[in-house]
Amino acid sequence: MDKIIIRPMTPEDWGAVSRIYVEGIATEYATFQTECPPYTAWDASHTKACRLVILSGGVLAGWCALHRIDPRWCYRGVAEVSIYVGEQFRGHGLGFRLLSALCAAAEKAGYWTLQSTVLQDNAASRALHAKCGFRLVGRRERIARDCHGRWLDTYLMERRAAADEPEGFKKL
């Protein structure tokens, strides 16, 4: 098996990160996005902490990051997960390793709730999140239209930190 490394994402990773994001967009069940934003827009919309990449055999195979769901102080410990694994690396357990690392990093950074919105056709993502301790909170019916105009449902999943005030809580 190839050597697996999980490390913080750097701006220099953007080329590989954006290619993997585009592969996710192309599936039409990973996101409602229809194109990858430029790095500056992506960078501005995601927290600086808890950006991770996973490398398999020295090749960037996937990435994950957090997005604050609400700027208000009361929600400072709640973030939404983005996780993508490159097409050629799917089905080998890398998503589990990456999401597990993200959950640990998020608790260390003080996040008490992680949430993820999973499109109705993405059973693999629902299973991955469940394996990493996320629970199904609800199903939002006909919440948005995809790029073909078809109404889709999404599943809202969340994971609570083990402690009400995780390690990095005071830093948030």
Automatic annotation (TrEMBL):
Name the keywords, alphabetized. Answer: Acyltransferase, Transferase
Question: Mind telling me which Gene3D superfamilies this protein's record contains?
Answer: 3.40.630.30
- Domain N-acetyltransferase per the UniProt entry, residue ranges: 4-162
Q: Does the keyword Transferase apply?
A: yes
Q: Could you tell me the superkingdom of the organism this chain comes from?
A: Bacteria
Record flagged with keyword Transferase = yes
Instruction: Show the CDD domains listed in the entry.
Output: NAT_SF
InterPro entries on file: Acyl_CoA_acyltransferase, Bact_Acetyltransf, GNAT_dom
Mind telling me what this protein is named? N-acetyltransferase family protein
